[in-house]
Amino acid sequence: MKRYILTGAPGAGKTAILRWLEVDGHTVVEEAATDVIALRQAQGEPEPWTKPSFLEAIVALQRQRQEKAPGDVQLYDRSPVCTHALATYLGHPVPPTLSREVERVQARQIYDRKVFFIENLGFVTPTDARRITYEESLRFERIHRDAYTSLGYECVPIAPGPLADRAAAITKHLCLSR
Q1: Where do the domains of the chain lie, and which CATH numbers do they carry?
Q2: Average pLDDT along the chain, 178 residues, taken 10 residues at a time
Q3: Is the pTM of this model over 0.85?
Q4: Which of 35, 79, 83, 120 lies 20 to 30 Å (CA to CA) from residue 146?
């Protein structure tokens, strides 16, 4: 089984690329943080990322999705390494559950060592879950890249451009990896 990660700054286009790849028949595993935010906001918590339990909820949902995902080739919208980068960005201590999950995915080589790093588009469109300025997204992007490279992953840059071209760059790499 091959598992590939797409990561990058908020608003870089990961979800749009994944939708394209999904329509092309690839198995896609959704990002957990956005869903945790949406649920908690629906429960009346306007800024769930300020609570320590936020990171643990993301880790639990990521692992659940990873363990249930079908298919021989899977594309992930983020990973526990991204959640670790999020803890750093938010200034939260890394909970033991997150440390153990990063150790688990490293030890078991759950994900391919090449990570598709979706480069920013030069702007960020805010949403209820994405309340970040473009300048802050650049800082977050650096933290993500550092988190992956410090763990020995290779970040494969996916440059800004038309959606079809970005998806094709990933598809080409997937074909070469078989």
Answers
A1: 2-176 (3.40.50.300)
A2: 94 94 95 94 93 94 96 95 95 96 97 96 79 88 96 97 97 82
A3: yes
A4: 35
